[in-house]
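Re: that backbone. Tokens:
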């Protein structure tokens, strides 16, 4: 299992980016599972950003990104996206996608709830 996160880059304050998460090994990994985005800055713990349950299309967001970020999935492409709008300086971080394969009620916000992780993609918001 290999998750591939992409789409990061340098963007100005108030701008937008779309991150993508793909499973480069299996075309059906996301089906029925839970996919989430986390972010991390140096010296800080990994922070939950957003999550989506594939089968229920249930979503959850951190308070800090509600109304600005949108997580979505594409069945045909087996991809998960994180659309980030109105970016702030504090959104700068390495963003990781993660997958949970075991069933659970709700969407866990702690990193230990996830089985597989991508390599991360850097997002830098400049003033």
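Recovered sequence:
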């Amino acid at each position: 299992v290999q998750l591939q996160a992409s789409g990061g880059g340098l963007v100005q304050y108030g701008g937008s980016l779309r991150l993508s998460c793909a499973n480069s090994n299996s075309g059906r990994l996301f089906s029925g599972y839970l996919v989430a985005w986390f972010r991390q800055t140096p010296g800080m713990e990994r922070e939950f950003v957003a999550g989506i349950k594939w089968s229920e299309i249930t979503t959850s967001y951190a308070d800090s990104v509600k109304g600005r970020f949108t997580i979505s999935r594409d069945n045909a492409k087996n991809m998960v996206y994180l659309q980030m709008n109105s970016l702030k300086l504090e959104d700068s971080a390495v963003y990781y996608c993660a997958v949970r394969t075991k069933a659970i009620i709700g969407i866990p916000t702690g990193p230990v709830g996830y089985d597989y992780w991508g390599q991360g993609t850097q997002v830098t918001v400049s003033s």
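The chain has no helices and eleven strands. The radius of gyration is 14 Å.
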